[in-house]
Every structure is written in C-alpha cells, then in structure tokens.
Design a protein that fits this description.
Elements: E1 5-11, E2 13-14, E3 25-33, E4 36-44, E5 70-77, E6 83-88, E7 94-99, E8 107-108, E9 117-122, E10 125-133, E11 144-153, E12 159-163, E13 181-182
Antiparallel strand pairs: 1-3, 2-12, 3-4, 4-10, 5-6, 5-11, 6-7, 7-8, 9-10, 11-12, 11-13
Length: about 180
C-alpha cells in the first residue's frame, strides 16, 4: 500500500490592516502522513493586546469557538462538495463540523469524539498542534484540498480574520477558493 506523506509550511494573511498594531504573525505547517493530518499553528507578536483564553486543565469539545481567538482547518477530499471544519482554541478546546456543501448541512462530526491538542504559551508566542485521523472520517488516500485560517480577538472585542487567501470582499473561510493547499 502506498503511503502518502507531505508537509507544507504556511503563513496566514490578515483580511485587513491590524488596527491595534499588534504586529502579530500566524505561521505553521500542515502535514499528511498516511491517514493522519497534522496541523501546527504559531501565533507570534504583541499578544498582550489580544484576548487569549488560558490553557484549560480539561479541554473539551465546544461550540462557537470562532467567536473568540480560534485556529481553523478546512479539509475537503478532491472532487467532493463535502468538507470538514476543525476549530482549535488556544485553551485546548476544539470542535469538528461536517458540511455537505458550501455552508450547507453543518453538523458536529460524530466519528471524532476526542482530539489531543498540545498548546505551549509564552508572553509573545503560542504554539498549537493537533492531529486528525482521516480514516475515521472515511477519507482514503486521495488528494485533499486544505484551507487554513484564524480568528483573532483583540481585548476590545474586535475580531481579526486571517487566512491563506481572502477570495471575496468579506472574510469567508468556507469559500471554495480558500482551500488552496493540496495534500
């Protein structure tokens, strides 16, 4: 059996100019090793202006993480209109949603009931890592389209939107043209 292994480094771009002057950057890597997809995010800069939840001693599945600081990964098998949205909080909380098509049929993915997120935080840097079992999602060895993004909440409540690309006049991480990485 052929083993698919690939790794891509990335840097997210802000949707608009940072009004808070945090000078943050969001970089990382996405890696596919057989049936495992690994995501790593690194947030760096003046984090004291951002609303970053403390690391939870008991991370769990939570809804609406995108209303605060949250890293996101979108996974779509080639040739399919269905895709998954993975939400990852710096607190260690997470959720995985399945969509039948562009913003259609959103539901919590029952095949994944737990995920391990490793978070390391410092005054000017947060590193987050997780892995997704693609086999549990029914994803075989075919090519994947990947979209990566982040919502960053400032202390004043302002939300900043970061992604690999912004293909529309408003932030839309679900836009099919935002799934630009192929693994």
């Amino acid at each position: 059996m052929m083993r698919i292994m690939s790794k891509i480094d990335f840097k997210l771009q802000p949707f608009s100019v940072d009004p808070h002057g945090t000078g943050i950057s969001i970089e990382g890597s996405v890696r596919r090793d057989g049936g495992t997809l690994s995501l790593e995010y690194r947030l760096q800069g003046r984090l004291d202006n951002l609303s970053i939840p403390p690391i939870s001693p008991q991370p769990r599945r939570r809804h609406e993480l995108w209303k605060g600081t949250c890293f996101e990964g979108f996974i779509q098998p080639a040739g399919s209109s269905a895709y998954w949205e993975l939400n990852l909080s710096p607190a260690g909380h997470w959720n995985l949603y399945r969509f039948d098509g562009y913003r259609q049929g959103m539901r919590e993915e029952p095949a994944i009931v737990k995920t391990n997120i490793t978070v390391k935080a410092d005054v000017d840097r947060i590193d987050l890592h997780t892995e997704v079992n693609l086999g549990a999602l029914g994803i075989g060895s075919g090519k994947l389209a990947i979209g990566l993004s982040a919502v960053i909440r400032a202390l004043d409540g302002h939300l900043g939107y970061w992604a690999l690309t912004h293909p529309d006049t408003k932030p839309d991480f679900h836009h099919p043209r935002s799934f630009v990485l192929g693994l």
